[in-house]
Amino acid sequence: MIIVSEECVRSILTEEDGYGAVEAVFAAMARGDAYNFPVIREAIGHADALYGFKSGFDRAGLSLGLKSGGYWPGNAEKGIPNHQSTVFLFDPDTGRLSATVGGNYLTAIRTAASSAVSIRHLARADSRVLGMVGAGHQSHFQVRAAAKQGNFENVVAWNRHPEMLDDLEKTVTGLGLKFERVEPEQLAARADVIITITSCHEPLLMKEWIRPGTHLACMGTDTKGKMEVDPNLFASAAVFTDEVAQSVTIGEAQHAVESGLLAEAAITPIGDVINGVQAGRVSDDQITLFDGTGVGLQDLAVASAVAKKAEEQGLAQTASL
User: Fold this and answer.
1) Active site residues
2) Structure pTM?
3) Would the pLDDT of 321 be above 80?
């Protein structure tokens, strides 16, 4: 098998690699050529950690495997990322372990690629102002990936801890974009595209604040109980997602579905839009919302792409069991 270290992943994996792999696997999911297995996510009763597995199989891309990892809140004090994960790939013809791939940087790239796919397929072509709700580690990946999808000129941003906006401003201005700190209501009034990337359990954006024509990519909710936007917004938006089953159970749509504001059947897999089976945005004044829950197949697709790249460039280590 080959081993692709975290350092190697960081050195060779690009936003373009992530975007291509994620878009392709979303399309495969919608065609029925790829499917995710049930997610396991548990509090282990030690170090306040959450640990779990995401897995699946992509028949089109021949990616089989799992991502193992979770969240250790005390890691920051030790100088290492709170999120820790590793991807294991298996040969679908034999079941033998074929690669282990560092999953931390990979997870950040694939999450940003997911919102970028939604922006390309659902946002208005004349979008110029990007709104960022959240300024943590993942926000930097989000803004870099989003900037490649359109002709953005300005970024307006808000974070519950304003001091964290300093680093995000450096990333934004480094991309040649203007940066401004605003309150959530102002952000909603000005942004053409809004990305939410927080770990909140309450709405940060209210329905009445969102302008017609806005595209929202809600990327922070991946667990029961989390919430970033007003559930009432779902009743007036065209809703899309990576996987409907996760969207209605652990994604941003969970609250709207539970309260009867949104029917599960009204949620469109983004892969159907990519494949041309379903319409995306149908008018300039339509509000579109992408519920990015994060699926295991994203990890496997990007891990497969980076493993192949590392092997071709002679950067992968080899080992035997």
Assistant:
1) 67
2) 0.95
3) no
